[in-house]
Amino acid sequence: MGEIAGRDQQIANQMDTGAWSRDMMSNCCAGGAVALARSQGPEADFQTFVAADPEAFVFQDEEGNNLLHMLVENMHCANCIRSIEKALKSLDGVLDARVNFSTRRLLVRWQAGSGAAADLVRPVIDLGYFLTPYNPEMMRSAAAEEEKKLLRALGVAGFAATNVMLLSVAVWAGLFSEDMGPATRDLMHWFSALIALPAVAYAGQPFFRSALAALKNGRLNMDVPISLAVVLASGMSLSETIQSGEYAYFDASVTLLFFLLIGRYLDMRARGKARSAAERLLLLKAVAATVVLPDGSHKSIPVEAVTPGTIVHVPAGERIPVDGEIIEGRTAVDNSLVTGESLPVEAAKGDAVFAGTLNLNGAVRLRAIKTGDNTLLSDIVRLMENAEQGRAKYVRIADRVAEYYAPAVHLLAAVTFVGWWILGFDWQVALIQAVAVLIITCPCALGLAVPVVQVVASGRLLQRGVLVKAADGLERLAKVDTVVFDKTGTLTEGRLDLINEESIDRADLDFAASIARNSKHPLALAVARRGRAVHAMADVTEHPGRGLSVVLKDGEVRLGSREWCGVPADFKDANDPQEGPELWFAQPGRQPIRFLFEDCLRHDAVETIAALKKAGLQVELLSGDRAPVAEKVAATIGIDDWQAGVKPEQKTARLEELKAAGRTVLMVGDGLNDAPALAMAHVSMSPSTAADVSQTAADFVFQGRGLGAVLEAVRVARFSHRLVIQNFGLAFLYNAIAVPLAIAGFVTPLFAAIAMSASSLVVCFNSMRLIERRKGETQ
Amino acid sequence: MSVLVFLIPIALFLGALGLAAFLWSLRSGQYDDLDGAANRILIDDDD
Predict the structure, then answer these.
(1) Is A580 exposed, middle or buried (0-12, 13-18, 19+ CB in 10 A)?
(2) A633 within a domain of the structure (yes/no)
(3) Interchain contact, B12 vs A4, CB within 8 Å
(4) Residue A11 to residue B42, Cβ atoms within 8 A
(5) Which of A137, A378, A490, A591 could tie A486 with a disulfide, CB 3.0–4.6 Å?
(6) pTM, whole model, 2 decimals?
(7) Residue A45 banded pLDDT, cuts 50, 70, 90
(8) Catalytic annotation, residues of A
């Protein structure tokens, strides 16, 4: 097994393409070993899976078999695919199990009546792959359909282009050797027409539709000259063929369509990849609410189905699913995702809590309240709507170029027509020359200039874990001169970490970690992360709201709150005078040990900020947290402009100020309180741990624990911008040479075909410079 | 040149065959999981 894994690793490293390549940095797993190490523990994962109510997602196919769609986490190599499929297929009753590695989805089909869904997929969860059931209807998007349509059009155009070219080459060869008779040439032209006309009618639709839509709105876009050139070239060639003329441009019109469709498909695919990844992130976070029924039993239902007045049970360590009022229990609530406040807030009966906050200590019951006009979320949404209206509509570079380019091209063609006519030629001859101008100027290279760069850039960013959600995000990011950061969850990790590790004895820490890993509580998780769980602890009891305990031969050991561990309120640890979230560790006959936690900075935050400043960007910090915390972070990280205690509306006000001062702002934030600012900024980014609303509002989403993604995105965006400008330059250069020749009437179909392909290739090769060199790559 | 009467239809037929194969592969979902296809060649079938 180890040998196979090693070989796979080698091969996989050589291939090293796509988003999963980042995962390959670590050792490849031998059938789930890595996955298991990363998961929180199969038992906990299984409970989470059951809580998501998988039976509700089971569908029946036509033959009455059960179908279940799931999202798979932790999957990262060929072995993972095999382990998962093998584990399922070896079960009785399972007809089919198929992993989709690109979208990280799993489809299982099994005979009805051979067991519950949860038990069926249990072996996969035990391997360490965390599963989330989903409804395929929710995933079906119009864009995916559109992508398939585009691919079909591409196939048809490709077929037509190659076959027409086959015939055209023969005709050109005949022109040179001058031994092809007119009858044979006509035959070739007729065959070309037979292939080209239906192909143009089918594959040209995306362009025709877009051109018509633009014209209806009284605008011009790049698709107008494209459509005009293709239609005119085909029409003119047909009339030439009927009159058994010498020149037909069928090959030009289909090749043009083929090249442009390639560009369009690549563009769509790059965005589709990012989109499906973003959708997946949101689906994974879609939480179920545990509702308490009148008879006291619990039931998991989707959050949207919770009605006001429903009693909801929230266990310790889980996110609060709905806005509500606590009716039972007391706990500390981590509001960081909502307000940016990093210290937990105490909440007891009668206090209001918000959806998206984290219940830290004890299980509580709350009564869901109406999502009316006074809830936090509705305030945020209202602010976001205002902010979006304030955002100037961005016109993409290609469209701005088209605004000047399209009229110029049409004018040139008209001038050519009139010129040749005045010079005394037949109107048909004049028309042929005008069409030749249209074909030559037709923006084949221009049509590829932006999409190819987009594809390469978003592919490179995807490898680094950055999803480009907005189509024009890269263009907008290139122009940025100011970066505004949120603090909690953006500059910091947004999770609590042990900070007084060095003042704790290693043996004690490992002992505590062994106990702590039995709990899902954030503080216990933080202890488990730092210590090595060396002792096997089977009978650890969790006391909600208090802590964990285990009875050993010399007495009970406790890990939990100050009161529960019997520590007097005035007892202070001399080494750690600092305040903050804490855990106490009490062992019989020994002084209790204090574990202190803090939301730590992202590991590369300081370097990233320094590098951003070096790149000529101004950096600001707008935090919803209290001033001392924000000041400390700003000082550590090297940000001079900072504001603390900022409310969502003050954040947008500050952005407004910056905009009025002529600055172009990139907003980076994760909290619900950042959402309006994210929607308003010129361009925005958020980490994948952000609140749903914020992720939806952001133009970019970055994964991983580092902040370096922000810097990388800015760099790639700037490089892309330069490449796009260069590509336009190259395309114009080509036109400057080719157009005078076309106006003068020197252009033949052969010349058009060569010029068009050459210019497209030059543009593509130029864009490829954005692909990172493998050697010397630092990650 | 009468050979063209055969050659052109043959060329077109072969081309159309390619197009049909492409459309079929598209329909049968072979373009749905490109990364997965790249990985699956590493899986041994024998065990």
Answers:
(1) middle
(2) no
(3) no
(4) yes
(5) A490
(6) 0.74
(7) confident
(8) 486
